[in-house]
Amino acid sequence: MTTIITKTVTRICLPLVILFSISLLLAGHNNPGGGFIGGVMFASVIALTYIVFGIDHIRSFFNPDWADLFASGLLLASLTAFAALPFGHNFFRSAVEFLHLPFFGEVELVSAALFDLGVYFVVIGSLLSVLKNVGDDK
Amino acid sequence: MNNTLLSLTIAILFGIGTFLILRRDIVKVIIGLSIISHAVNMLIVSSGVFAGTKPPIITDDGGHGASETTGTIFTDVLSENILAPITTAGHSVNYVDPLVQALVLTAIVISLATTAFILILAYRIYEEYGTTDIKELRRLWG
Amino acid sequence: MDSFTAITLAVFLPFILAGILPVVEKVLKNRIGWYAAAVALLSLILVAQVAPTVIHGENIQGSIPWIPSVGIDLSFYGDGLSIMFGLIVSGIGVIIMAYSNGYMSKREDLPRYYQQLLFFMGSMLGMVFSANLIQLFIFWELTSITSFMLIGYWRNRPMSVYGATKSLLVTATGGLFMLAGFLLLNAMTGTFDIPTILHSESMIEFIKDHELFIFALILILIGAASKSAQGPFYIWLPNAMEAPTPVSAFLHSATMVKAGIYLVARIHPMFSGTDAWFILVSGVGIITMLVAGFLAFRQTDIKGILAYSTISQLAYLMTMYGYTTHIHPGIGVAAATFHLLNHATFKASLFLVAGIVAHETATRDITKMGGLRKEMPITFILATIGALAMAGIPPLNGFLSKELFYEASWEMGAELGGAFTFVIPALAVLGGVFTFAYSIKLIDGIFLGKRPSRGLPEHIHDPGWTMILPTAFLALLIILFGLVPSIPAHYIIEPATEAILLEPVDLHVSLWHGLTPSLAMTIVTFILGLLIYTRYDSIAAWQNRFNSKHPMISVNYFYDAAVNNAKSTTFGFSSRMQPGTIKTYVTALLLLMIVLFIIPIIVLTPDIIPSTLNFDIQAYEGIVYLFMIVAALGAALLPRYLPAIVSLSGLGYLVGLLFIYLQAPDLALTQVLVETLTTIIFLLAIVKIPQKFREHITPSVMTRDLLIASAVALTVFIMMINATQGIVPPFESLSHYFIEKSIPLAGGHNMVNVVLVDFRAYDTLGEIAVLCLAALGVYNLIHSRGEEE
Amino acid sequence: MKRYIPYAVILGLVWCFVHGTINLNNFVLGFIFAPFIMIPFKPLYNFEHDFSVKRGIKKIPPLARYSFVLITEIIKANIVLAKIVLKPKMDIKPGIIAVPIRTKTELGTTVIANTITLTPGTLTIDISDDRSFLYVHTIDASDPDAVARSIRDGLEKYVLEAFE
Amino acid sequence: MNIVMQHLPIILIATPILMAALMILLRSKPRFQKDLNVTVSFLLTILSALLLLQVWNSGIQAYGVGEWGKYGIILVADLLSAGMVFLTTCISFLSLIYSLDYIEKRSLNSTYYPLFNLLLAGLNGSFLTGDIFNLFVFFELLLLSSCGLVIANEHGGVTRISDKMEATFKYLVLNMLGAFIMLIAVASLYATTGTLNMADISVKLSAMSAAGTMPWHVFAIALMFIVVFGNKAAIFPLHYWLPDVHPSAPSPISAMLSGVLINVGAYGMIRVFFLIFRDTLYIFQPVIIYLALATIIIGAISAVAQTDVKRLLAYSSVGQIGYVFLGIGLGGMYAITAALVYLVNHAVAKSMLFLSSGGIIHHAGTRDMRKMGGMVDSAPLLASMFLVGTMSIAGLPPTGGFIAKFLLFDAGISEKYYFEIGIALFFAVFTLFYMFRAWLLMFWGEKRDVEKYGEYSSHKASSLIVIPIIMLASAVLIFGLFAEPLISLATATAGQILDPQPYIQAALTEVVR
Amino acid sequence: MISMFTFAITFMVLAIVPCIYRIIKGPTIPDRVVALDAMTVVIVVMLAIYSFDRGSAFFMDVALVLSIIAFVGTVTIAKYLDEGVVL
Amino acid sequence: MIVDTILEILSNIFLVIGLFFVFLGMLGLVRLPDVYNRLHTTTKIGTLGAFGVMISILLKVGFSPIGVKAITVGLFLLLTAPIAAHMIGRAAHRHGVGLCDESVVDEYGKVCTIKK
Ligand code: NA
Ligand code: NA
User: Fold this and answer.
1) Under an 8 Å CB criterion, which residues of C touch A?
2) Cβ-based neighbour number of residue E438 at 10 Å
3) Number of domains composing chain F
4) Percent of chain B with pLDDT over 90
5) Which residues have a beta carbon within 5 Å of ligand 1, which is an ion?
6) Is residue F53 included in any domain, yes or no?
7) Poorest-pLDDT segment among C457-461, C633-637, E441-445, G69-73
8) Which residues 233-272 in chain C show a CB within 8 A of chain E?
9) Smallest CA–CA separation between C82 and chain E, in Å?
10) pLDDT(E75) > 90
11) Which top-level group of life is the source organism from (chain A) (predicted)?
């Protein structure tokens, strides 16, 4: 078992890193980052909690089905790509919209971001599914 | 990106990886594959073709729509033998080649997936065979 | 109905009507044999219906489009030769099917039996009427397959399976060679159409002068010889006797084995008249005739005698088709064609008799029989007619064709001159001697002499009329053809001979020719035949001694050795080729890459080192390169897993650092993340892999591996320094497009990300699918244990 | 919901920091995300006592004091170690000693442990099962009691003030 | 319907990916999972037929994913790719039906459907893509999905799990190496031409060739692709993984691997060499021919040595793919036609044989042919189906295999490759020998020693297992009896292959934003 | 004239030498892990300098990610060493 | 103006000191006798040096993205470095890595052996 010291710092890191991962996901289109990088970041911090607190302990309160997550990610990604078809466009045709929101100012809405979200889910889901499957294997 | 010493390094990594995949221990083989995968990734990046110095992230845009133009014509008129893109003479680009980086990203992710699979496979093989020696891993032969 | 339709129907009706046999069986039950006979009769009628047209010198031709893109149509050609074969095939077919009603037990799988017989008959008819070499080949191989199925009719008996396998391997293989011959013929003439070649003198001239002539001839003759059991290919026929006797009578005496003869006759116009033709066809024929004749004489199994006799008789035909003389160019051909017809009648009748005898006595061993003439008088008479015809006793048809054979041999000998003047006729006589001897042996062994005290059933009698009548009909033909030879000669042999020689033929056959050399040869034959028959025991003793001393003088020895040892021999090869260790496989791949890489260097002799190499780097960059090499070496050389993995991880971070120098922040991010995750998974894996094994690398292995590794490194290096010279002007990278359109069209500043999620998002879709696959695969790996629930 | 507020505030700031631009937009974004991140991991965090602004403000001076001491100690530590590393002859007397601690909360224990690690010559190796001792590796273990004393009197006091 | 017709190429690739995701999400509802997948798979078969029809009627279709034209990724459906896709969807549909009864429930309901769908996506994607890097991505998709499927559990458990893993490991290592080499080649190609679009590369390389500025290393790149595709197709000396992997997989997957997956290598070879590296043909053609001959020899001789029915079939695949490559290497119009016909016939026959072998294994409870015998009485249907396949592989009429061999030999001889065809012919005899020997060992001869090996299973193969076999066997016969449609299709395809201008025209005039 | 940047980067690269030495030399596994961890710190510093020199924050992101992920890695290896398991 | 100059000088000093300390920390890896002592130099000197460099950058660029991120990185290192050191040290000891010969006391070792 890891010590209280490690656990405490992991507790501190966990939200920070998750936040960072979301930041990387959202920033990806204009800055380094994106779905994959954000996803790996997320997966590694969950892995860290698994490692530090023990997979069974984490699972007692936080036990998403990672397979469902990566499947949904793949579904989301492919549906995003399909979404262009009803509009008379080719598969994966992207759309860019610039929205003016009252508080945030100009916000760029990119259909590709939805795809990137799918990537994000797939990365998180698949990596953690691997870790969980192997970790469970006694 | 004509960099001979980098090419040499990549080649040497290739050699080292090759040496490892010729070993008898499957874990060593996998390590060898990892090294080669690094080498390949670097190789792809170094085959980028722009001599730019900036990362391929456009920073200086004054609002959407405007951006750096590269002075390039993009048309394909096969009948007239015009093969896009065609740049104006003496043109130089600030960025490094974004395409190769995207390719490498894909390659890295794929090799992560493959490596994960092959590692767990090695783990199961050990469970089944009780060894990691490739010489004993030859029930299938002849 | 026009002739073409009639022939088409004659060929395909057996297939179609056989196809519905299982349905017919529901109605007719055990009597489907008669249905089959009716089908055969239908074909016979259809063939006979067109015969007059052909006899009048008019050939039948027509085609249905089949594979026009390679110039192969379903086309039929009916000339005298085809019609003769068509009549034999369908005629004997009727007899055999009828006979089978009595022969085949009701307990047998009759639908299968008749179905295969009819398939065979259809294939045979298709073969003889094919106007097209490829079509001919197709039907040819179909006869091989149906023969295979019929020989293996009793499919659980090892000897049946052995015989069936042998026949298939020999004949189908021969067929493949024949196909190659046809292809060469096509390469020479540009057509597969037989009539086209036959009717073009220039083409035939061209073939004979062509450099591929001899190859085509040999290949086609291999096919013919294998089918007709000539030369070394004879070995399958004796074993084919495992088939039900009617099958042997039909396929392995009267019809299928003559396919090779048919082929020789068919290609006669294209290839004959050359030395090669004579040497190959007649040479092989004579040797086979003598050897098989002797072996037939030595058999004790009735069907064994008949089988070897068939081989020997077919060799007669071969020999004669090889003869071409200046004075009577057609004499050999005519003799062969006549003998072919006669052989079909007497050999089929003998087989049917053999079937009757075996059916009644429950044995086929001639040494266990004797004196049956009293118990089965009708059978005895029929057998005697057949045997005497085979022995060449007048006034039966066998005598006539043997006379022609002797005449042709005499003339051929004279034509060649020198020693051949007597050698050729002498060899022919020797063949006749054996024939005479085993024919007598057959009758003597079964019907004459004393009935053995033990081994035979109590009550032996003539069979029912279903078996007698067909046999009797054949015997009738034997006598008819002998007494009135002008009927077959005029209506069958002449048209057939004309078809082969491509010129009008006037054939005069009669019982009395006058005092000719051939008459003398016949008399010598009878005397010598009687003589060696009486000396049978000493000859047998001599041969047994010889065989035990020289077991290798047997084609069967080689066949069995090849087939039985095939697995063990090839296993040695295959286990050396496929040693099972992945190292070999990897080495092969790498060596192939290296070798292939060298090819352009050798062929083009380029400057493999470009002149514009750039060695200009910052010092720190160089040091990082060095670090990477050191870290990689660490990962390679550290003997234990964990240190190696730590070193590998270090390499990964350094690669990330390098990506920074290469202006790739996204890559660096991904690299360090992936590196760490890889390390975690490495640790997960080695948790359960304690390092028990440690490789001891011998110096020789080390040297070899280092050589391979260096060669790979060199290959990559040369590839890279050349490839990184930049895009060949005037072309440009399409990355320009991304720089220009990233923001306006995709709304993103990070071009790498835009490429990933927009321009090449499709790649990324594949990439995330790969990630899912890894997860699914790992799930499968972990959950693959244990039994199914 | 109230107890999320401190976390939300912190995460709002974190968002600004990782994003690199400190402005209201970013803060609000982080603030909004915070609950969603925290809820699944609720059991990992101690939500017993509600957050009070007053208490938070009261903690600022001790925190500042602690930070100041920490920084000076760190600098000292570095200079000491730099000397050791640069000295041509290694004459150190390292060892692991047990140091009793008075902190009770997990955060306090962690902070003191980390502080010890960051300060001169000491490095927390482990904590005893009852959390009353820290096992500290020290480069100069010639007088273990002195080390333990200096920790108790120096750093631990400030940690207790600021974090408990 | 119109929208479907417009997007046929991508639908054939993306739908399986979508289905894979759905199948994972639906894994708690096995019935629905099964029904949905079978339905969609069937529809895909129809759609692929429509695509082929569309290409046949209105020429080569290019589809720009994301409407980026050659700057993104385009899919190109010409007769070759559309034909391959049609073949793939047909065989995979039948294999899927077969799997429903053959694969053990715990695999079937957890990972089998998604893996199978991704395999299909990988195949269709590899065939349709017009982008060389995308080809790499889909190769990886193929690799990992087939690895996952090889270790899927099947009923009966005749194949040891350890064997599956050993085989998978070898497969994976060799293919990872292949992938690395492919990346080197692709990167070098990009560095030389500045594009990844195959049509574009082709245009640029021909222009370089015409101007005399083509660098020599393009030849080296071309030859590296032989390693890449040769590895996928398992030609000598890259065949080693095949005899280990194909038999270890569950039979429907063996059918997919041997029937379809190795064709990817042949396809890639044709596509890359006749589209991109036309100007280097004169160097690589002899190389391919001799590698093909070596492959034929190795496959033929090794197959004779086998006693395991699936391993025998696998070696036979090695030999047979050698014939396909011989056709590719000969390179003329007729030879390519022959190679394509050969490929299709082999695909159909071999998948049928592997599916039958699954039935045989169920029946006999072993893969060792020496422990079988006389099964013709207890399994007459399998016997006749296997015989049809045997005849086709052996090249006997009236099966498609004969037509294929005939065309190939004729093509070779008409192009004066006498020696090469001689070798090929000689080893065709081996094929005949080992195929019939196998059939005889299993179905004829004395019934097996019951005391030693136990009774044959009395369990009758269900219609899910029988129907796919019968359908494929009928196809084998149809290709033999009515060969003209296939040959004309192959001829038209060969025409497109040898004249890449229409392909380039279609690919590069795709609308670009 | 060597710029400040080149000097700093070169200096940091030289700081990696001891890390690599320890990674290779060991002698114990913890030694290697310490060295690996230390190497990431140096790389982080290099990234920071590089980022500053280029005036772009992109490389800073890499530095942040590296410092986080290296922590994860170190904890994992340490736990493995300590308990012989990872998860 | 003067403020700028002072900041510039200060930042350069921080930079030089930071770099120097990072280097020293790494040098410690070679010079110090065992893993525990090496942990001292890398975590303390290395981290502080890194922090110094980050401060220097912050001083140079102010609260621009680069500066803010730099200080984020620095803080994160300060937070995690001790934990890493603690984990490694603990693991090393429990893994059986003994203290160097110069060591004078090992109170933890006793506890460990009792536990085992
Ligand atoms: Na790696
Ligand atoms: Na750290």
Assistant:
1) 665-666, 669-670, 673-674, 676-677, 680-681, 684-685, 745-750, 753-754, 756-758, 761-762, 764-765, 768-769, 771-772, 774-775, 778-779, 782
2) 26
3) 1
4) 54
5) B 34; C 678
6) yes
7) C457-461
8) none
9) 22
10) yes
11) Archaea
